[in-house]
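Exercise 3.2. Students should predict the tertiary structure of the chain below and write it as structure tokens, then compare their answer with the key that follows.

Predict this chain's 3D structure.
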Amino acid sequence: MIRRLRTARLVRGERGYSLIELLTVMAIMGIVMGGLTQIFVAGSKAEADMNVRFQAQLNSRLALDKIRRDTHCATAVAPANPTNSVTLSLPAACGGDKTYCTSAIGSTGSRYGLYWQLGSTCSAATGIKLIDYLTTGNLFTYAAQSTTSLAALTVDFPVSVKGGSIGRYELKDTIYLRNSTRT
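Answer key:
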């Protein structure tokens, strides 16, 4: 019995947390967790943006390499006017004629894609997409052969995921047709 009285006195002397203390701690924890959540969301968005930019740059490098290989093998180039399409005359050993063309993506007219297709015609509906996020549709400039130089195809790929000049990545190269002849 004496033991029970001592235990009862000790229990009565111990106090728990009040409702105000609990609410204060919860409010502080909510503010801290909200800040941490914003940091993680911002990091996730930055990573997604970086992945899209990296993929766009990688696709443009691979497309330039493909066009470079095809142009080196080509015997002639038939550029379109405006310069949004080019047909390369390739021997059968190189896969036959190929056409590269651009087409607007969406209704804004500020985003273009580069497509290729076997043969002398190309369109976004039937071609294979190589690049997305181009800022212009005019990518090709052709210089015919002369007595001093081989024919050359200049390719310019301005890539921007956000549009315009923000974060713009540009690949530009002049590729000579090794199989063309000097006239």
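Discussion points: Residues 19-73 form the longest helix (55 residues). Strands lie at 76-79, 85-89, 98-104, 112-118, 128-134, 140-143, 152-159, 169-176.
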